[in-house]
Design brief:
262 residues, alpha/beta, Rossmann fold, 2 domains, seven-stranded parallel beta sheet, 9 helices, 7 strands, 45% helix, binds NADP nicotinamide-adenine-dinucleotide phosphate
């Protein structure tokens, strides 16, 4: 054992959602820990900005809700680097909000397509390559919503609970092939996703609107904290690295103690 096991030198890591928030922080942390990156997102402008923040990387504009697009992403990773060691399925949206009785089919389809099918396609494409390699680590991002059952977030919570069970089934299938599959369920993190309701028309964040939400979420944490994207990126780094070689089928919960399932 050595602290070096927490590094990911030369591992090839694909990160979806890399243009923003947790995905961008994951790209930066994995790069600092030595990884070679394949950055994916549908937001091409901000994907290019992330590309400038890391060392060795390529950017592949991707729509995770489309199987062919995710297939192309993994193909490009393999053709550029020859392998895929880490797949971080971070991209997601918080949509289809409101009471169950008011959610329309189009909004439900959108969130299922990105948050559930998107992660499924990422797991599927990565497992195919990693299974042949006989090694790899897949990390899926769920949410503390899987523990909290928050009113008004049925669509989002359903997709994240789906990600958690998909993780366990994929771990069962991947284990005999030498592939680990784990999940991270973050608590409240300040990112463009959670700032959306406080955004002005010009794109800037109205602190007077944002602060009450942050205070509310902070009080739910036994640490009296909300999280930073790096808190989640660090958990992803651990799961990507050989330091977690005995971990598979698990859900890590960096959530400030808002939920503590047995
Ligand atoms: P974010 O800042 O909005 O970043 C998400 C990124 O994913 C955005 O760049 C987004 O692009 C991209 N994306 C959305 N749909 C996509 C698609 N179909 N194909 C490719 N890229 C797509 O959100 P975040 O807070 O970092 O969230 C990252 C993940 O953590 C999500 O899965 C989220 O559910 C999860 N999470 C977040 C929190 C939190 O408190 N922030 C808590 C628990 C879990 P657009 O901007 O164009 O949509």
């Amino acid at each position: 054992m050595s602290v070096e096991q927490f590094r990911v030198d030369d591992k090839v890591a694909v990160v979806t959602g890399a243009a923003s928030g947790i995905g961008r922080a994951t790209a930066v942390v994995l790069s600092e820990a030595g990884a070679r990156l394949v950055l994916a997102d549908r937001d091409e402008y901000n994907l290019e900005q992330t590309l400038k923040m890391v060392d060795e990387a390529i950017a592949v504009p991707t729509d995770v809700s489309k199987q062919a697009s995710v297939g192309k992403l993994i193909d490009e990773a393999v053709s550029h680097y020859g392998r895929v060691d880490v797949m971080a399925n971070v991209a997601g949206i918080m949509d289809a909000g409101g009471p169950i009785t008011s959610i329309d089919e189009a909004a439900l389809d959108r969130i299922l397509a990105v948050n559930l099918k998107g992660v499924f396609f990422g797991v599927q494409a990565a497992l195919r390559v990693m299974g042949e390699q006989r090694s790899g680590s897949i990390i899926n991002v769920a949410s503390a919503a899987i523990d909290a059952a928050p009113a008004g977030l049925a669509g989002y919570s359903m997709t994240k609970a789906g990600v958690a069970i998909l993780t366990r089934v994929a771990a069962a299938e991947g284990g005999p092939l030498g592939v680990r599959v784990n999940c991270v369920a973050p608590g409240f993190i300040v990112t463009p996703m959670t700032q959306r309701g406080a955004r002005r028309d010009d794109g800037t964040v109205d602190d007077a609107k944002m602060q009450p939400l942050v205070d509310f979420m902070r009080k739910r944490s036994v640490l009296d904290k909300v999280g930073d994207p790096t808190d989640i990126a660090n958990a992803i780094l651990y799961l990507a690295s050989d330091a977690s070689q005995f971990m598979t089928g698990q859900t890590l919960r960096p959530n400030g103690g808002t939920a503590m399932p047995a």
